[in-house]
Amino acid sequence: MANRTDLEAAAAAGVIGAEQVQPLHDFLATRATGAVAALPGEENLRFIRNFHDVFLAIGIVLFAIGMAIGIGTYVATAASPEQGTVTTGTLCALAVAVMWGLGEVFARRRRLFLPAIAIVCAMTIFAIVAGAMIYAGVLLGRDFGESGANFESMPPELRVGILLAMGLGVLTPLAFYLRFRLPFSLGLVGAASAAFVVVACMITNFDLTIQFLPTLYLILGALLFLAGVAFDARDPERATRFSDNGFWLHFAAAPLILNGAFALIGQALTGDGNAMSPNTGLVVAAGSENAGTAAIQAGATLVVIVLLGVVSLLINRRALIVSALITAGVAIGVLMNAAGLGAGALAATTLIVLGAFVLILGAGWHSLRRALLGWVKPDGMWARVFPPETIAA
Known about the structure:
This protein is mainly α. It folds into three domains: about 1-35; about 50-205; about 210-393, no CATH class. It contains 15 helices and no strands.
């Protein structure tokens, strides 16, 4: 079997494309070891191959943290107070360049996706800090913190600075995706774009945004979901990079959809237009001390999860329901804290039902898909959105 070094050399010589290295390596590995090939239509985890990728990703994270600490230490000890903000921004911009160089090595040349994920995350954080600090030091001549974080009294130039920083949070992973075609970075673009819209709305009208924040979450989550479906429709067999793009967009969309749905449920139950937890952004039974309201809310949570499960089955995307369940677990934890110890049995029952739901969904995934598709009977373009179930039960 050709090893990865040989395949990368063939890609560098133009014999095969760089995007073919990993699939060809995996195919030859299954042929050599007699392993069962990946089933068509499944969501294969192509962002990690082995522990070597984890090892490199840990090294990149430690390196990025070390650079951040080094920048902070240098600014605190060597830079003058007047130039500290600009110096911080400049050094963070250099850190962005360093991370981009690592991307050229690990993302473009070696196609190591997990290390590339660590690189784009670190680079995005450095870019946001760099843009904010340089803008604050050069154009404002002062730190962001001097004007406070009150959206109501925030000066216009400071609002522009915040939007600039948030914009860099979108443009940095977008540039990374355009250069390296890393699917995770497209999901990061989606999540950062949603954050940009939320912050922009808050800066424009804070009170109105808070009032309609659940609806805004739902709209943004739906847009990311539709973007994921658009990529899925181009690859119904889940075999190419389009499928990976859809995977991360669905993963980013689910928490927004779930948070928006939970918050709207909380508002309907409590009559409070701001029934959001200040710590997690997840709905709680604000002001409610009776188990009845908590039970209704827990039941509504289960209904939302079931609906997402049905959608996941139809589009053949486990990532959507997994991301939603992570958010649901946090929501249930918040609900337990709000309801008090008396709701322990309720919380345990809710978790047991959620766990059973996942087990049933996982064990009967293909049979359930076949049954649902029998009702939907998709054809034409809809057959690409709801791909046929070809795996035997």
